[in-house]
């Protein structure tokens, strides 16, 4: 038998129980069994008068970071956590919360008579973020401890709080630098009080419940778990504890097998598996202490700021004095934002700005930095000229990166001395906020360079995904295909607002036409001009988007007219756009038909899925889960649907293939069945969510 992850020993008249299940002490079957054994030992020692308390803590940096979500895919294994907590609740136990006590870990703490938090404590019940509700008493015991007004928003939003706030809210009883020592010294008034199970039911809090429902409808749109959690907490005020607990357990077991929880777990694990692949992990990344960012506009200033926040000294290079001044102002705006949100004090912000940022222009010498990231205009010649200068001025070890969205990084890097040190680092706007980065492997990029880029993005707190070279890499290539599918729907009979509403109801953060109005129709127009010839015989050309720009000069919000009309910033359907679309259909000789929202959403998702399979097959993405991460973190794809590859798995690969085949039959210039999808269906292959291609 392997050693139990739960140790216990008697010292100072206490049974000290330590959960030691690295890295973060999650509760799996062995931990539950170990805790029961510890309860046995405690009962014996109490009966013999050898101890007067049980002190529970976690080894290493966490208390208990949650339940082991890997167990969620199978049937619940005995012993179940509620049983364990039931036993624990009868003992004079104190939780010494040394680190993260989340989900099942916090429920464990709630089963104790008292909770003492160390400086690193982080507590909460974030189950809804994994599509479930607390399953071992959280929705019933936390309201008894702190009242429904506090418990409802915490649990329904899955918010976690640090030590000081936890104390303020009453989630813990005391703070201590050494929570174990404090638990050993804890006086009897806390130790001898009744367990939470014997506390009175909380008073109803209809206002808090209504506010949480409103929050769920807007910020957690489409998700079941937050609403279920609110209902369960309301029941805590009405029902005897035992009944509340059994309802909660039933809801937990049902939700954890459902599609939303499966999708959220998939993304959770995809995030943890993101970044450098196994071969790269073997390599020692180069140290990055200094960076140069070329271009201080929308992207460059935000990238520079993100680097500076991670402790890297940044030289920002602009083309002239006026642009340098704008770049300085951009960076100052980010610092002001951090100060006004209370993230930084005014003094720290000023000191950091002075120490870490050096904005310059002109042809002077450049400091010998470890990495240079280019974010100048999206123009091949401009970018090449910038790299020629950087290459000549910087040491031969400096990594060179381009933030280009659509240009070919191999063309951008032509002529640089050491192309093995060159790669793409495609950030997303706003770059100091958005977590996604596509790490683009160019023709000669060395593994060492990639490993260094992944180490850097990790340090910036980003989620990095490796991408190969193609037009638009992973994300923008899929976006282009998605928009084309929308335009085909337009000419066949749908209207932009119908498409937007349908995909938003499906869960997308924003419809594609509303997004284009925000980013500007001219940007997408310029891209189309650059790559897709109108007369490409293999491609179905829909003229509507081009005419919006060429004939109507409707460029989006910046002209108060795009796919929508804007009055006081509010979008309304545009009759002029409707007329233009109808004229295009008539001209093409197409009878317009109506599309139900479900059909629209399905077709739009099929476009994303089809392109995702092509991308995987071409090796542009390394893992299918990486494509899911790109869509969820860069394009407003609902996290609770798990990304397009997970969605394809949920819909069934055979059904997806049948739908694509039907569309391809009708419109072969827009659709085809991706060969990889076909071969996976024919082989009865592993679901797409787990497909790996190296
Ligand atoms: P921007 O127009 O806001 O900024 C470009 C900056 O580069 C300007 O401040 C300009 O003065 C400066 N610049 C131009 N030539 C220069 C030179 N020779 N030396 C130094 N500085 C020079 O453009 P934005 O939006 O920041 O885009 C920059 C790059 O990032 C482009 O390649 C773009 O495709 C890419 N990108 C843009 C995203 C976005 O959402 N805006 C997202 C991801 C990538």
From TrEMBL:
Q: Which UniProt keywords apply?
A: Fatty acid metabolism, Isomerase, Lipid degradation, Lipid metabolism, Lyase, Multifunctional enzyme, NAD, Oxidoreductase, Peroxisome
Q: Which reaction does it catalyse?
A: a (3S)-3-hydroxyacyl-CoA + NAD(+) = a 3-oxoacyl-CoA + NADH + H(+)
The Gene Ontology terms for molecular function here are: (3S)-3-hydroxyacyl-CoA dehydrogenase (NAD+) activity; enoyl-CoA hydratase activity; isomerase activity; NAD+ binding
Q: Which InterPro entries match?
A: 3-OHacyl-CoA_DH_NAD-bd, 3HC_DH_C, 6-PGluconate_DH-like_C_sf, ClpP/crotonase-like_dom_sf, Enoyl-CoA_hydra/iso, NAD(P)-bd_dom_sf
Residue intervals of the 3-hydroxyacyl-CoA dehydrogenase NAD binding domain: 293-467
Task: Provide the protein's localization.
Answer: Peroxisome
Q: Which GO terms describe its biological process?
A: fatty acid metabolic process; lipid catabolic process
User: Which pathway?
Assistant: Lipid metabolism; fatty acid beta-oxidation
Q: Which residues form a coiled coil?
A: none
SUPFAM superfamilies recorded: 6-phosphogluconate dehydrogenase C-terminal domain-like, ClpP/crotonase, NAD(P)-binding Rossmann-fold domains
Indicate the segments forming the 3-hydroxyacyl-CoA dehydrogenase C-terminal domain, all copies. Answer: 472-566, 600-686
The name under which this protein is listed is 3-hydroxyacyl-CoA dehydrogenase NAD-binding domain-containing protein
